[in-house]
Model the fold of this input.
Amino acid sequence: NDPRFDFSSKADAQSTFTTRSILAVPLKARENVIGVLEAINKIGEGQFTSTDCELLSVLGDQAAVAVQNALLFQQSDLIAEIVHEMRTPLNSVIAYADLMQRPTVTLDQTRQFAAIIQSEAKRIVEMTNNFLDLARLESGRASLAHSPVDVVTVVHMSVNVVHAQAEERQITLSIEVPSTPLMVMGDAQRLHQVLLNLLSNAIKYCRPGDQVRVVARRDDTWVLVSVADTGPGIPPDALPSIFERFYRVPGTEKAFAGTGLGLTIAHQIIEAHGGEITVESQLGEGTTFTFRIPASRYTE
Ligand SMILES: Nc1ncnc2c1ncn2[C@@H]1O[C@H](COP(=O)(O)OP(=O)(O)OP(=O)(O)O)[C@@H](O)[C@H]1O
Ligand SMILES: [Mg+2]
Done:
């Protein structure tokens, strides 16, 4: 009685006939079942025969191959984009390594170039990690833990990580959480990653003097967490694209280092938890990202 597979009642409502018989075959890619192909009612009279069953199986196999191919296309797009993105830092590593080998280079310059090479190489590593994360999440290969997680603890941990960074940039960080745990079922490490992505964005895009506030609470069904900042805001026409991979608000590309994968990863992780992430922003006033995850009955 899985509601995901309840097509027949909808089909009955939309058409004039009632379901008398259903033939279903699994869609298999390698050894994994990735979906179901169903045929409802045989034209005329009678039940499905073994020939029908064979025919539908063949169709099912072909449909499974098509679905797999579509996924591969999507992945090769991702690969093309990441290779393109990595070219810039790689080229600058090559250029600075080249400069370091010139006979006229001073010791000071050598140090300076080495520092640039180091930071560009770090960016490449970060990009590679993000890319692998996203590829795993998008293909469904990422196995997320499904354990009780206290979101309040995750908030405290994440804020601790970025605290020094915020201070250095003269940004005030504050949190508002209940004194009791907020339990959800999920993957603590992944949720930590979501909060870090949202917090590091807030800190990265805010200006000195700005404020960042993290609020965690629950209602009847959800645990909600928001990260609100008083930063520059996101233009309304950019909001619909904000969770797309590699999307960066025009203008930010030049001012801040980044790949445009952080929010895509956050979005994927929250969806994998059966939740939702949304953004509200007012240009010049600030931005608030909010995610919600089904509250666990653990606490009741
Ligand atoms: N709090 C914020 N305030 C203003 N703009 C933001 C904020 N968070 C995100 N953005 C905009 O959304 C874009 C996408 O964010 P995202 O985190 O996905 O990528 P990124 O920060 O550019 O790179 P990275 O992959 O390193 O996270 C950013 O480039 C920035 O333009
Ligand atoms: Mg980011």
Remarks:
- The radius of gyration is 25 Å.
